[in-house]
Amino acid sequence: IITAYYFAYTPLQIFVGTLMDLYGVRVLLTIAILFCAAGAALFGVNPDVYVGFLGRFFIGCGSAFAFVGVLKVASDWLPHRYFAILSGLTTSMGMLGAIMGEVWVSHLVKLYSIPYCLYASSIIAVILAVLVVIFVRDKTVPTRKQRKTSLNNELVSLFKIILEVLSNKQILWIGLLGLFMYGPSSIFSDLWGVTYLQKQYQFSAEQAAFYSSFVYLGWVIGGPFFGYISDKVHLRRTPIQYGAIAALIVSVLLLYLPGLPPLVLGSLLVLMGFFSSAQVLVFAYAIDLSNPSHSGTAIAITNMLVVCSFFLLVL
User: Fold this and answer.
1) DSSP string, 209-240
2) What is d(CA 180, CA 251) in angstroms, rounded to the nearest whole number?
3) Which residue stretches of the chain have pLDDT < 50?
4) How far apart are CA 76 and CA 174, in angstroms?
5) What is the pTM of this model?
6) Is the dihedral of CA 236, 22, 159, 18 positive or negative?
7) Angle at CA 144, nearest 5°, toward 143 and 146?
8) Nearest CA to 36 among 128, 99, 106?
9) CA–CA distance, 170 with 195 (Å, rounded to integer)
10) How far apart are alpha carbons 301 and 171 in whole angstroms?
11) Which of 81, 136, 159, 298 has the most other CB atoms within 10 Å of its CB?
12) 296 neighbors 141 (Cβ within 8 angstroms)
């Protein structure tokens, strides 16, 4: 069931950015949020494994538009010099959601029930969709009449933009760099971290989830930090290099120094997320190298390569 999310999210990244470049963010993001609401509701209605797979797949379809949509709006409406820090802030907000899932939502499930929390999530998503309709505006989105194209020609335009961005080898290298920086800390927190901490430190499941969420805390702090530094010094590559080296050192210390005191363990987990968060700069890097009118496609393809870490490190 876990993989259903990535089977939807990852391949859709090829198309979501281009769709937003062609049709804007407002309508697509609204539909995407409703897909997430439907997916969560399916979980609550029926606990069957096949229904759960479908619900998770729906959530993956909807979530595929989230990160790209926010960065597309940022690239359209805000000065380019702020893009790196906005990438960091967007990632931080996402990681705050992950922390809520690790700690707060698990606590709510104990107090109430899984279906109750899923229904509540669906209702919140519908409210969010309404807010998007009210407040989000597209800067420039030509109508089909203005483009004077048929549906077939629109499909040709879609794949033409995708191929143009994919032909830029620098964007592909940047995406792979993001993959190897994001993958280890993300997979550790999402899949392996709780089990590892339980076996290595004899933590309870709740304690292990609490400590595992420290990695997300590091991302929350580090994303805006590296974004600010990058925008301040007008460099992308150097902060990424230092972050990658430091994240590698911290990861080795975590895995090969057993029996660490709780304070040291917690600090290293935070630092692991903090240094890995330099990865957010790959999106600003991709924007720097792409045609401004294809910014959504560049962000989405970079993000697709980043989330491929799930398949490389798990499957």
Assistant:
1) HHHHHHHHHHHHHHHHHHHHHHHHHT-SHHHH
2) 13
3) none
4) 22
5) 0.78
6) positive
7) 65
8) 128
9) 37
10) 8
11) 298
12) no
